[in-house]
Design goal:
The chain has three helices and four strands; from the N terminus they run ββααββα. It is mainly alpha-helical and 110 residues long. The strands form two sheets. Strands 1-2 form a two-stranded antiparallel ribbon. It has a two-stranded antiparallel ribbon with strand order 3-4. The longest helix is centred in the first third of the chain and has 19 residues. The chain binds zinc ion (ZN) (2 copies). One zinc ion binds next to loops. One zinc ion binds next to helix 1. This is C2HC/C3H-type domain-containing protein.
Length: 110
């Protein structure tokens, strides 16, 4: 039996991927993040997400414990959360492109 790792969380977008597809996804996700970020108004631009140090993707044959795995995913999740921007009206957090959509329906209360 191989390592039964259920999923890996992308540290950029916070979505779940298989341990094989994350390696393909991460560089693509970072590229997309960079072009999305460059398209934002300067005050909404974010710092480039940093790959969490806890990240320990198993290479083939390498064993990783469940707790190490969970710590890795938790670090990635936190990093992805830090990418979210709060709505100035209601305080809920969104990805910048989602926030633009949300702002059309969320108006300041008077
Ligand atoms: Zn991603
Ligand atoms: Zn709102």
């Amino acid at each position: 039996m191989m390592n039964s790792i259920p999923y890996v969380i992308c540290y950029i977008c916070g979505r779940k991927y298989g341990s094989a597809s994350i390696k393909i996804h991460e560089p693509q996700c970072l590229k997309k993040w960079q072009s999305d970020n460059a398209a934002l108004p300067p005050e909404q631009r974010r710092k480039t997400p940093v790959k969490p140090v806890e990240r320990a993707l198993p290479t083939s044959g390498q064993k990783i414990s469940r707790s190490e795995w969970e710590a890795s995913n938790e670090g990635a999740w936190k990093s992805a959360q830090a990418q979210l921007v709060p709505c100035p009206h209601c305080g809920r957090t969104f990805l910048p492109d989602r926030l633009q959509v949300h702002l059309r329906s969320c108006k300041p209360k008077h």
